[in-house]
């Protein structure tokens, strides 16, 4: 038996950064909002014993339970897709805060080039710069249009940074808090990159440099540089996350409630409108219908796309014909970089998730691509995130992978190794996409999402060129031995790479090429909004969270306008 609940103004599916932002903004405007979170409630008080590397970083305490729901994966359409049985390449968050709880805190704005990449690339290099199988397109919004929303997110999150990046888009105000400490390791990177003619700056960080009260009156504490950020919650309340900022701001209005253990399995629709969602209690398996005037999908990239697919909303992308948009333009990230082995010991075990220095000289179109067989690039960073002993075993080349020699080299180099890493932009390709699996289902009887993805010639060329640049920086830093990253071949879903998945529910200027408009409003159902990194038409050279936060504030404006006036927003 299905229980139908009282209708609300807005229901969000997922309570992480996007769900929390939508809830806070709508609730402040007097709208009644319900957030459906399939995980449990948690907060700062739950992380007092979080410095357990095995439990949280190896066994993924905070992540999605893949025994209940996972994805299937293949490199190409002629392969059989098989279920991902354990976390590997990326880490899907679950519970209150989602991936916004276990992130590192690196908070970037995508470059102006990113939002108009098709137009700007064609104007500078001609329309044939990339083969036609690369499905790059503009986002339907410009950096200048999105800038006020970037500014708002950074002020709510209290981001610590400095306006010293000569390649960044123009800012309407400075960062709300100063940059983090410039440690001796970062100074080494700063000196080397300056010597090479580049422009280093402190990485923008959601690990705050000082205590801060945000515009909603929420307190964020100062980072303790403990080195336990990524894959961990913060026991100090110093890593900005949804459960210490936007979620309490929404709750304080009295207009917001969260239902936990609520796994949404269908968006309900009638005619050209959606009417609410159907969810299953993950503990009792009871079914409920939550009616709403507006439905906002605020879950992770893959879950947003899957929910649209199983609800038969939108036209599925067909890689054979190129028709359809749902599931199209899935993109990941490329990781060029270099390691350096040094003679002296360094405090590599200390740090914070977003403690670092960066350069953007090789990001976006900040360097000439005329004679290169790829577009875009990567931000290069030297980060001091804290080297934890179980997962950190740096050894020079030709060291055995086990035994006494491995142990000796691992101990010797634990505090003598540094890395210069690049976050390389991934361009969408016609054969990289998401769809539903025809064989496997989750514990609720819903088909699994199927991911078809492989690295492309563009990716390999970008990786090769930028790995050489990273090695040059490491050499200038004085490493005794420099080891560049191995060339990439086929994508492997097993080793961790990044949780920076994008695409599948892309935004754009017209329904023929996108799933949602630039308010993240669905083209086919005007009271349905879909927001997250799935809206990205391609991936960039940064962590996605800052841009996701800006899009969430843009979406919140759209939901409020729609609730007040109705109709399409473009």
TrEMBL record:
Keyword Oxidoreductase: yes
Top-level taxonomic group: Bacteria
Domain called Glucose-methanol-choline oxidoreductase C-terminal: residue spans: 428-552
Protein keywords: FAD, Flavoprotein, Oxidoreductase
Transmembrane stretches, start-end: none
Domain Glucose-methanol-choline oxidoreductase N-terminal: from-to ranges: 218-329
Family stated for the protein in its record: Belongs to the GMC oxidoreductase family.
Protein's name in the database: GMC family oxidoreductase
Natural source organism: Planococcus salinus
């Amino acid at each position: 038996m299905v229980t139908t609940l009282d209708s609300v103004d807005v229901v969000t599916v997922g309570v992480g950064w996007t769900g929390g932002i939508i809830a806070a903004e709508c609730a402040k405007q007097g709208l009644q909002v319900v957030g459906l979170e399939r995980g449990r409630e948690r907060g700062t008080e739950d992380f007092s014993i979080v410095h357990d590397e095995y439990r949280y970083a190896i066994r993924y305490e905070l992540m999605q339970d893949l025994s209940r729901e996972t994805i299937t994966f293949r490199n190409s359409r002629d392969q059989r897709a098989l279920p991902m049985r354990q976390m590997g390449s990326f880490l899907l968050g679950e519970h209150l805060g989602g991936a916004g709880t276990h992130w590192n805190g690196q908070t970037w704005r995508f470059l102006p080039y990113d939002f108009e990449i098709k137009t700007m690339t064609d104007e500078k290099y001609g329309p044939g710069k990339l083969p036609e199988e690369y499905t790059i397109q503009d986002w339907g919004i410009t950096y200048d249009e999105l800038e006020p929303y970037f500014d708002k997110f950074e002020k709510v999150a209290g981001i610590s940074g400095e306006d010293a990046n000569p390649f960044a888009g123009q800012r309407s105000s400075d960062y709300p808090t100063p940059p983090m400490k410039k440690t001796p390791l970062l100074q080494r990177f700063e000196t080397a990159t300056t010597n090479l003619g580049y422009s280093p700056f402190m990485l923008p960080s959601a690990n705050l440099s000082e205590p801060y009260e945000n515009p909603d009156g929420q307190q964020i504490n100062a980072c303790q540089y403990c080195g336990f950020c990524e894959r961990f919650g913060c026991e100090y309340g110093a890593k900005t996350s949804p459960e210490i900022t936007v979620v309490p701001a929404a709750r304080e209005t009295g207009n917001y409630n969260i239902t936990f253990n609520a796994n949404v399995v269908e968006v309900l629709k009638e005619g050209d409108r959606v009417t609410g969602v159907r969810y299953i209690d993950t503990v009792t398996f009871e079914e409920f219908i939550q009616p709403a005037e507006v439905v906002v999908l605020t879950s992770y990239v893959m879950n947003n796309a899957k929910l649209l697919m199983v609800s038969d909303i939108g036209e599925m992308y067909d890689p054979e014909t190129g028709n359809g948009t749902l599931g199209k333009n899935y993109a990941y990230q490329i990781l060029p970089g270099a390691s350096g082995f040094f003679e002296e010991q360094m405090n590599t075990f200390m740090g914070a998730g977003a403690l670092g220095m960066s350069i953007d000289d090789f990001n976006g179109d900040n360097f000439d691509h005329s004679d290169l067989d790829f577009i875009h690039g990567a931000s290069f960073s030297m980060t001091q995130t804290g080297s934890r002993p179980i997962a950190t075993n740096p050894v020079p080349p030709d060291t055995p992978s086990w035994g006494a020699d491995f142990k000796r080299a691992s101990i010797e180099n634990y505090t003598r190794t540094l890395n210069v890493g690049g976050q390389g932009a991934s361009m969408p390709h016609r054969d990289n996409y998401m769809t539903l699996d025809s064989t496997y289902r989750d514990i609720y009887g819903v088909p699994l999402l199927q991911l078809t993805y492989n690295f492309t010639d563009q990716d390999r060329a970008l990786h090769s060129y930028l790995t050489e640049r990273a090695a040059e920086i490491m050499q200038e830093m004085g490493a005794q031995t420099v080891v560049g990253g191995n060339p990439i071949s086929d994508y492997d879903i097993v080793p961790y790479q990044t949780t920076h998945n994008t695409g599948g529910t892309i935004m754009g200027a017209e329904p023929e090429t996108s799933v949602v408009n630039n308010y993240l409003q669905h083209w086919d159902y005007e009271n349905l909004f879909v927001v997250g990194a799935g809206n990205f038409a391609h991936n960039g050279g940064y962590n996605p969270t800052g841009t996701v936060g800006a899009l969430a504030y843009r979406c919140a404006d759209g939901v409020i306008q729609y609730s007040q006036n109705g109709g399409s927003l473009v």
